[in-house]
Amino acid sequence: MTRKIIIDTDPGQDDAIAILLALASPEDLDVLGIVAVGGNIGLAQNARNALKVVELSGRTEVPVYAGCERPMRRMLVTAEHVHGPTGLDGPDLPEPKKKLEAQHGVDYIIDTLRSEEPGTVTLCTLGPLTNIGMALVKAPDIAPRIREIVMMAGAYFEVGNFTPAAEFNVYVDPEAADVVLRSGVPITMIPLDVTHGVLSYAHRIEGFSGIGNKAGRAVAEMILFSQKFDLEKYGNEGAPLHDPCVIAWLLEPDLFKGRKINVTIETASELTRGMTVADYWQITDRPRNVLYLRSADDAGFYRLLTERLARLP
Ligand code: BDR
Ligand code: CA
Asked: What is the pTM of this model?
């Protein structure tokens, strides 16, 4: 049976690849809508990038919304140094013809959860959790209607990628992440501990361009651009591919391993702002609010991604 999802995102090359993976999998995933959020780059550019990616996939019937421009309590912090000045540097994608929907992304999330059958809609978050936090604050009645939130967020064993203590998506809006983690909604967290094991080695990038379609070429060009920063930073032979793990988890959960634990967000300290304090060894009796994934079968992940991208134009 297909699973209904809303993708909340700040594209971003790895976000774009996640969106393509979802849109290439209509028999598994019914993508109800895509909502942009301020994150890797400002909201307007993220929304434009989402439109470009939807056009690249050929699935132009999927609506795209713009959500929040900035975090709940803080100024927006962006990551052009990783993703380039457009947020999606690499491929030369045409300016989109498709337009954004008029409704605000947060209201779209609320209305969709209220109108769909309870327990049927999964939220997939690939950026800061601002839109979901705002939706839960504005309309707490939606919480029990959400099937699950699957998020690329956080780190424990790998600690931080944006500061020594914090992963980017949580660092940008720790208050929103805190609201979401305390909401009681079932959560699967895909942290850097997983994505740092899913590396785009050269032969894997060649696998994407070797498909011979537009999407495969664009994905290879995206990775070739965004990997520069990570190759130098981590000194590995390949760069992590973060956000597509969220979609891969929905498509093939057997590729991943993890356990149910408590995760709490640090919001008070400046030094460790946005740290995901994961009780991985179950030292406390805090509620186990998160299915925390720890590792992935990286060869299986790249096999799945390559197979699915081959279905696109
Ligand atoms: C996350 O930060 C963003 O730059 C990526 O798109 C990913 O969602 C990784 O920390
Ligand atoms: Ca992202």
From this structure: 0.98
